[in-house]
Specification:
337 residues, mainly alpha, MetI-like fold
Length: 337
């Protein structure tokens, strides 16, 4: 088990390094391949109204004339030891870990990301609890009652949940439940959990349900398919022949065998959502990482976009690392792989 964990940790570190390289290439090398110059990159930092001399000096001080490997090493080193941006008349310091410095807002990117993270974290974790409980429960019951009215009805609702986009169900939910009936909080009414747990849950209730409706549908269909395959295996018939009660057969043997693909998609979904639930945050006017990325793209603030992208990649890699470790718990055969 220890050797398995060590292998996965080394693989995660190596993957993060590869992701950082790809991210750097996308934001710094691809524009050059598309005809960009160091001056055009520097213009994004100083603005289009700056004169040519200022743009050239900025490009030089930011290292845009250096070879690509030197720029990448300087950028990677800034994550661990910080970075100082020297503009001649002034110097801006970005302390470690430095994920970039926004020259439009004149502040490092990481504090902004940490300030927005509780919103995205609250949204993702709350919705995850709902969609996992609902999806696995509905999928298991549908598999045990294959062909019944419950099975057809629940899978029909699941199909609707997968098909309807969040920006549609979210706006419909706001119009009906918040503004017409007044049952849920209106958009943009996030309350930190440190201030009031009740107000925090009330403000996020509709976003949780909206997000969980789409994901739980996928989990219900996946659980149903996995349970149908698992419940026909020989070890299920052996467990029943040994006299085990049906509840233990279903939960301990059947459901456990069907959880492996569920863990896979759960790790991917959580990693993506922690990197920013763009559509949900936009629909409900929540100032999380997703809304932060949208604002950065609109303002063409490259350091902010780069910081969100790298942070989202980190979340995805870490989520998959946790999934790999959970595999060893759910399926002991994985430990020997």
């Amino acid at each position: 088990m220890i050797a398995y964990i060590i292998r996965r940790l080394f693989a995660a570190v190596f993957l993060l390094l590869i992701v950082s390289m790809i991210t750097f290439v996308i934001f710094y090398v691809v524009p050059k391949l598309n005809g960009g110059t160091p001056e055009t990159l520097a213009t994004r930092y100083v603005g289009r109204t700056a004169n040519a001399e200022t743009v050239q000096l900025t490009a030089q001080r930011l290292g845009f004339y250096d070879p690509i490997y030197v720029q990448y090493w300087d950028w990677l080193k800034g994550i661990f030891v910080g970075k100082t941006y020297n503009f001649g008349t002034s110097a801006e310091t970005c302390p470690a870990p430095c994920l970039g410095y926004s020259f439009r807002s004149n502040q490092p990117v990481l504090p902004d990301l940490l300030d927005r993270m509780p919103v995205t974290l609250s949204l993702a974790l709350g919705a995850a609890v709902l969609w996992v409980l609902a999806g696995i429960s509905v999928g298991t019951l549908s598999a045990l009652r294959k062909g019944s009215i419950w099975d057809r009805l629940s899978m029909g609702v699941a199909l609707a949940g997968v098909s309807l986009p969040i920006f549609f169900t979210g706006l419909i939910g706001l119009a009906f439940f918040s503004y017409q009936l007044g049952w849920t909080a209106p958009g943009g009414s996030y309350v930190p959990i440190t201030e009031s747990v009740g107000d925090w849950a009330y403000a996020l209730l509709l976003p949780w349900i909206t997000l969980a409706f789409q994901f739980s549908a996928q989990y219900a269909r996946q659980t149903r398919a996995g349970m149908l395959d698992t419940m026909n295996e020989d070890f299920i018939r052996t467990a029943r022949a040994k006299g085990l009660v049906e509840r233990k057969v279903v939960v301990k043997h059947g459901l456990r065998g069907a959880l492996t693909p569920i863990l896979t998609i759960f790790g991917l979904d959580m990693g993506l959502l922690l990197g920013g639930a763009v559509l949900t945050e936009t629909a409900f006017s929540l100032n999380g990482l997703g809304q932060y990325a949208i604002d950065a793209i609109k303002n063409q603030d490259l350091p902010k976009v780069l910081g969100v992208t790298l942070l989202a990649a980190v979340f995805i890699v870490l989520a998959n690392l946790v999934v790999d470790l959970l595999y060893a718990v759910v399926d002991p055969r994985v430990r020997a792989a």
